[in-house]
Amino acid sequence: MPHTEPRSPRPTSPTSGRPDRLSVAPEALFVYGSLQFPEVLFALIDRVPDHEPAAAEGWRVATLPGRVYPGLVPGDTTAQGYLLTGLTSDEWRVLDAFEDPVYELVRVDLGDGRHGWTYACNDGADVGPDDWSADDFEAQHLPAYVERCAAWRRRYETSEQVS
């Protein structure tokens, strides 16, 4: 059933990826794209947090032209993913810095009555007409993407030591 209630309020924080965006770590993160793969999480934060299947009604996991990872946009479908819990403040900072500026952190209501925060596309995002496929991503892009994540993390840790 599509989401009929007003969506959770939009955040007033700056664009994702900027330092100090998170003053307090949110309680749970709904992941629907590359972050649902344990290999990606491990490359970024050295562990796979507690997670369980979750769904966000009234949202669509869409392709983003020129990118192998998706974006979450309002839609008439249900976005499938996982709810990650138990992330530390440091892990939230790493994930927030990792996320593309095309995203903003928003609160979403989940189909089972819970809620979580997620990185959804901002209003200016270039979104494709097709739904993103986790199976296609895994088959065609996952190993190279994990390597990109590991390289990004090394650069991030180096820059954090310099700061």
Relevant CATH superfamily: Gamma-glutamyl cyclotransferase-like
Which percent band covers the strand fraction? 25-35%
Radius of gyration: 15 Å
Q: What number of structural domains do the residues give?
A: 1
| Fraction in helix | 25-40%
The end-to-end distance, rounded to whole angstroms, is 47 Å
**What would the average pLDDT be, to the nearest integer?**
87
Spell the H/E element sequence.
Answer: EHEEHEEHH
For the biggest sheet, the summary is: 3 strands, antiparallel
* CATH C-level label: Alpha Beta
Which regions have little confidence, pLDDT < 50, spanning 5+ residues?
Answer: 1-21
State the secondary-structure class: alpha+beta
- Placed side by side, the strands forming the largest sheet appear as 1-3-2
Number of strands: 5
How does CATH name the architecture?
Roll
Number of helices: 4
Account of the protein in words:
Pfam families: GGACT. The protein is an alpha+beta fold and 163 residues long. It has a single domain, classed as Roll (Hypothetical upf0131 protein ytfp), CATH 3.10.490.10. The chain has 4 helices and 5 strands; from the N terminus they run βαββαββαα. It has helices at residues 38-45, 89-98, 134-140, 142-162; strands spanning 28-31, 50-62, 71-85, 103-109, 115-121. The strands form 2 sheets. A 3-stranded antiparallel β-sheet has the order 1-3-2, with no helix packed on it. A hairpin with a 5-residue loop joins β4 (103-109) and β5. α1 packs parallel to α4 (142-162). The chain is globular and about 45 Å long. It starts with 27 loop residues before the first strand and ends with a helix.
